[in-house]
Write the structure tokens for this entry.
Amino acid sequence: MLKDHRITTISSIVSLASNENGIELNDTRTSNDNHSIGLHTSCFREKCNSITSCFHQLVKRLACLNLEQRGSERISPEDRTDLTIINTAIIWISANLIIPCFAGGTLGPAVFKLSLYDSFATIIFFNLLGTIPVAAMACFGPASGLRTMIFSRYSWGYYGASIISISNVIASIGWAAVNSITGAQTLRVVFNDSLPIAVGIIIIAIISMIVSFIGYKWIHAYERYSWIPVFIGYCILAGVGAKYFTNSGMVSYNTTIPINSSHRLKVSRILSFGATCFGASISWCACSADYNTYFPEDTSQLKIFLLTYFGNLLSMIPIQLLGAATYTGTYTSEKWNRAYEKNNVGGLLGASLSSLGGFGKFLLILFALSTIACNIPNIYSLSLSAQVIAPIFKRIPRFLYTVIGTALYILLAIVAASKFNDSLASIMGVSSYWFAIFIVIVFEDHLFFRRCSFKNYNFDIWDSYQLLPISLAAILSGIVGIVGIILGMSQTWFNGPIAKAIARDTDAQDSENSIEEIEPLTNIFWLQFYLAQHYDYLSDINKAFGYIDQAICDISTLVELYMYKTKIFKHVGDYQTAASWVDEAQSLDTADPYVNCKCTQYFLRANHINTALEIAEKFIQIYIHLYDYPPSEQDNDKNDNLSNIPAGKAKKLKNKLRKQQEKQKQIEDEQRRKEFQHNRYPGTSEFDETFRICWGWK
């Protein structure tokens, strides 16, 4: 039995290099062959010593930063001194309030074509399920002092855990790549598409590497506070973009959907999206114990479970719900739709915050850098998992794996950035596949064979391949699970035989049940708009209002709809209501000169002179200046954007406003004259006396 087999310092690399390989450092041989072997051994020893000395010098220089030198070895009970148990919840709040989780919510309506409410229900239900294994796995850290992959040796066996560690390394690299892509897309929007995606990925990766390089204490210190400004930013995003959210059945501009989609197809989409949400939430189970190993052995298991569960749940669900809701803004705003098509989630965030100007760009930078909080635990756990693969990998210090892993996921992110949605759906789906196999074996061993008691574990044999179980049953079960995954997998890059058979049956069922042909969504919308115009022309006002109201209900942010409803009210002579509707249209696009001009006209018709003047002041002075003082050749470039509005209209409107002001002035003068005559011959009543005193007339 191996006891206290821990690598606490990097100096142990020397003994590993010499003793574990059976090299006798002081042996002297006389034959030519032995002399050659001795030379090679001496060279190998010198290289190991030089590498070790370099590591020693690096650690000494970083001693002031409290660099964590401990790797995957067990943390003894006397070294577990961390008492800030609230960190168990906070680290997951910071790790989940990120753009990739936001993007995961957009997959419901964007990729799986679900309605907003269906997406909401799927997100809530599958996250409630997926977070349970993460919270349960977190309880193993304080009780054992072992990292998650090391703990899996007791159920998967020494060599089975090596296979699981390889899978976890791959998953960590994939998630880090996805996180970096979303952050880089957002930074690209901030710099108006002038910043290459690759540069943004490198910026985020380097910052993430620095914190994960230092280790446990700095990770918790960073995660403790990084979520606060990000949370405030997402609250602002929800408030600004809420008016664009809709539960419309539309998918996007210029796209089509089946009018009568089968119930079977809808269930298939819900389950596919649910598996994606489940994969996102359960993905933390492979490293959730890594951040609790420094807690005392007697820490309450219930507290660890609840803090981990609600820390994940209360951050994952709201951010995914917001992502699904924000994507529906592409149905109601063509600007949002174009931004999403150009820069994906980063473009969608940029469009939704564009009304905030410079502050909106600041929030975008904040959202982009929030992905660092998720990359840090990914790369930290990657470095721990890499040391579990084989004994030779333990010779490389933990913090060097952070550098190697960062280089790998930078390359992967640059390649996968061009197909982000497919990459995100794939990594979330594949993660749910292998994580499901992993947790079933671990929890089955803990529940049925260990009887839910940590007293049935011998944690002193954590690194002994001779004493740990072989677990052939677990390995064979995992292989069977992988075969099942391959047969039933349905991804953009691969479809298994079972998935293909189900897809063929679904397509056949849809073709039998589909009565109506697929209708373009824009046809339905424009049909309602033109029918409103038609019935307005026929003076059938009720039908005209019915169709225009239905169109506004479907797309509530299109200015043209409000403008035509204003025209219908004008045709029936209701100028007051027409003015209120044109004001609503002007609030949707305050920079459109045509809408501003029309708004001024309708307020003049409604005899709201002051309101008309306030609106006109926003744009009319520019055109009056252009008319009275024609621009020079030097100013032509500056005024190109004003060419859509002729100066003649501005002059005409100016004269009209001046006449209205003169008329208003005549009315006020006449009123003052009558009041003056009344005060010149005052009455004797108390009312007249009070009236004169109040107005200062003596």
